[in-house]
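Re-running the complex after MR caught last week's input typo. The corrected sequence lines follow. Everything else is unchanged.
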Amino acid sequence: MENQPILRVEHVGKTYYKNRVLKDVSFTLNKGSILGLVGENGAGKSTLMNILFGMSVIAETGGYEGKIFVDGAEVLFLRPKDALSAGIGMVHQEFSLIPGFTVTENILLNRESLHHNITEEVFGERLATLDREDMKKRASLAIQKLNVDLDGETLISELPVGYKQFTEIAREISSSRTRILVLDEPTAVLTESEAEILLKSMRNLADAGIAIIFISHRLDEVLSICDKIVVLRDGEVVLDTKVGETSVRGMANAMVGRQTKRIEQTKAVKDENAKVLLEVNNLWVDMPGETVRDVSLRVMQGEIYGISGLAGQGKLGIANGIMGLMLAGGSVIFDGKPLQLNAPSESLAAGITAVSEDRRGVGLLLEESIEWNIIFSALQNQSGFLKPILGGLLHIRDEKRIEACAKQYVKDLEIRCTSEKQKVQELSGGNQQKVCLAKAFETNPKLLFVAEPTRGIDVGAKALVLDALRKYNRENGMTIIMISSELEELRSICDRIAITDRGSIAGVLPASAPSEDFGLLMMGKVDQVEVSA
Amino acid sequence: MKTTKSEHLKFFFIRNAVPLLFFTISALAIPLSGFSLAYLFEELLIRLSRNAFLVLSLLIPILAGMGLNFGMVLGAMAGQIGFIFVANWNIVGTQGLLLAAIISTPIAILLGWMCGIVLNKARGREMVTAFILAFFMNGVYQLVVLYLFGSVVPISNTDLVLSRGYGIRNVTNLEGMRNSLDNLIPLTLGGVGIPLATFILIGLLCLFIVWFRKTKLGQDMRATGEDLAVARSAGIRVLPTRILAIIISTVLAAYGQIIFLQTVGTMNTYNSHEQVGVFAIAAILVGGATVSKASITNVFVGIILFHLMFIVSPTAGKVLFGDAQVGEYFRVFISYGVIALALVLHAWRRQSDKDRARARFRNTSSAT
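Corrected-run output:
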């Protein structure tokens, strides 16, 4: 290995609107070596890669601190094009392939081989015709480097997911400039055999001299292939080590470990004879980006059940599927009766309510008043807040009761507003969330789904939201399923927590289990955790 | 998922619903109309030579993913302005046509460029935007031709100008140029005059389009049309590429309108361009094209089927209902109807394609 690292990142930091997401990140990458970059969602991996790839969002939000060196020379990328010409290639999680084009056309997109002719002299290069033979050769050369079996003439739309990934990588390496290749969770969508092929081809590429940054949640993959591992947590490098010097458990610990934090005592262990309120068997939900493949779980009456897991592993899909908002299948038994899926009104009528993770999009009528928002679901679905007029011929809204109800919630949940007539869009995120909760509480559900209730709200509001949930659980016996990516928050309020991985439940642990066990479940290392049912 | 034979057949009918419908209507109406096949052949030949160039001009924006270019009306306006100048200078024959084409080219480029910029601001809603833009530009065209020609723009030929001294008359006579291209290379087959030179031009345009698809620019347009974001991230300058597609289409439409009007011989100064877009678009849709996919075959099949119906429906209507007006009414109704039908089919097909893709994804992913 040469002395000069091909990439050197020094003291890089980044804030978004005063919110610090990266702090003093430094690492180096040598030619022909593979660096594993590991971290929870929100640990700052994406931001770091956005900086490295010169995404415009970085410059638009005030640039970054620190320095980046490629081949010893300092670089500043303002556009992805700059990073490309410096030899950095990136394969994103979402495919950027053109479905109606063949593999070859995609690999050589905008770098096609051309026949040179007269029109080109007159009108410029764009009127030269494509040299399909040469394109075929160049594409198959790139495919050979990857050492996979991929036909250049197949349409992308007809390829299985794994091979789309290979096409993307082939595109990056077909560009002779590419010396640093960033792979953002390339194995997340692959089957095991495909992942194996990919890991092998990565090794081939590294041996050919390309430096690779490999972002993955699959810790055993990282261990098996990388030369070096960097673990990020809350925007800081918490572990920077050679591969031989750590273990899966060590990495998991570094990722989630916040042992110093005291966890609030949860409620006493449940009564053994508690009734099962919700039983889910083999649920699948077709939610783009949060696909649920095979989920089975049992939630007891009166418990607060947490669901966590990394982004895209299906935790959000579960609630949307049971509420009938996304196409779903499988069996759901609620309160002893089978629940019809794909019918939102059925779920609501059965007494299930959800607080959506998409607060502003689905959760609220932004241009309406607080009181309207609070009573909306109850009025629409349970004909609450109506009074008969003309001897019961018509029903109109009972404004007095609506106002009284809204006033009560404003007081109970400490919604900061000028009055209950204020428009919801004028409220802060935390107060909007409280309105969402009030709306859900007012339907008086037997089971309440709450998805990401504390996302994007400040600490004070967070505590209030969690307190409100706890209070309704204890005092009204409302069963709550809380879905959150913030594990610590779940551990402070839930009785049990399920972790999703690849669209299934990897395991269910009591909230008091050690945090590294949760980390291991998230990473798909089920065998290393003793799971209690 | 294996597709069965019956599914295959169903698929074929769904994909070709519009052409099949038109084929059936024509097949029923031809015997009713009582026209001889020789007559129909001659009529179709004339209509092909008139319309093919105009309809072909639609292909490139479809390639670039901009849908059916209702903005081709702008090109037709440019062609007509060229004609007004040529008629003013009393230039006749093919020289007149050539000069009209030369004059209309910069106007069409300018209008196309402008249209392209507007459409880039209305991505995803190109068709309705271009449709309304054509209405707006119709107003501008009227202002120019009705008020500025003869007052600001000197028009010396008094036959063209309204009696008040400025503005062009309703009908512009193109007698001197009538059929001058069609008859450039005289050819008669079995008593039927064949407009050979026109067809040679149309053939050349087809060759141009075939060649154009193979160029780097054509490939860039295909990529832009398939997925704008991906094309952009690959470094293709997508917005200028889209503007180029519209400019090419507008210029071709200008030439198409010139060819169209020379076979007619007179020009309705204020109306000739209005229906051009709707009829050309209806024709290409009848030929089996969709908003996102069209071929040269679609163009010719479409013109033949669409105009066959135009020819036979008035007489068939007369036989059936005793009133030729019914057939007349029928053809306007049909051209808008087919556009609406094609757009609905397109939306429905895209949705069902999406659903199928999701279903396939579910099957494969749950299998692993």
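None of the earlier attempt is carried over here. The longest strand of chain A covers residues 19-29. Chain A touches chain B at residues 80-81, 84, 96-101, 105, 109-110, 112, 114, 125-130, 157, 160-161, 191, 284, 286, 291, 293-294, 327, 503 (CB under 8 Å).
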